[in-house]
Amino acid sequence: MIKTRDYYFKRAKREGYLARSAYKLIQLNKKYNLIKKNYDVLDIGCSPGSWVQVSLQFGAKRVVGIDIQKAKVKSSSFEFINQDIGVVDHSKIGKFDVVLSDISPSTKGYFDAEESVELSRKAWMIAKVTLKQNGNFLCKVFQGREFEEFTAELRKHFKFFKISKPKASRKQSREMYLIGAGFKEQKDI
Ligand SMILES: C[S@@+](CC[C@H](N)C(=O)[O-])C[C@H]1O[C@@H](n2cnc3c(N)ncnc32)[C@H](O)[C@@H]1O
Known about the structure:
Elements: H1 7-15, H2 22-32, E1 40-44, H3 50-57, E2 62-66, E3 78-81, E4 96-101, H4 113-130, E5 131-142, H5 147-155, E6 158-164, E7 175-183
Parallel strand pairs: 1-2, 1-4, 2-3, 4-5
Antiparallel strand pairs: 5-7, 6-7
This protein binds S-adenosylmethionine.
């Protein structure tokens, strides 16, 4: 059984983060250095907003977040697009040094890995057209039938690629984090 009020849940409350997932991004960023000072960050599936908080703490200059649910961050450096990822007009949001995707089905209960990969693929479609050359991509995805194919597709587009599971991710969860650094120009693929 999942303990909902675990160590990271309590720590997030104490330290003022909007969700325990803040620590996943903190741990991944300390290891892979994806978000740096003055970077522009796109956060797909951003609500309630703990990754926005963390991105700003790591020095992001501008964070654009997309989600169907409301985000709770108030900052002049944060722009919120309250839309389904499938209908966002990416030609109007600019280019980013980093694209993050923590998107997963919004149902509280069971969902299958394929549903999650489908959302992550949509996030990747947006990342592909909004990432600056040499930009970084972090994408949560659940292990299932399509996992291998999706990771193989991503791997081709980055100079550095890793599959990682931070300490703050529950052991029993099938979520994994794909790290792509150094986005290649299309002609180099
Ligand atoms: C695990 S939560 C993200 C938590 C966030 N990273 C944080 O730290 O606060 C996943 C988010 O994906 C969003 N989501 C699910 N389907 C979506 C869709 N089709 N379009 C946009 N957002 C979606 C959910 O509403 C939910 O807020």
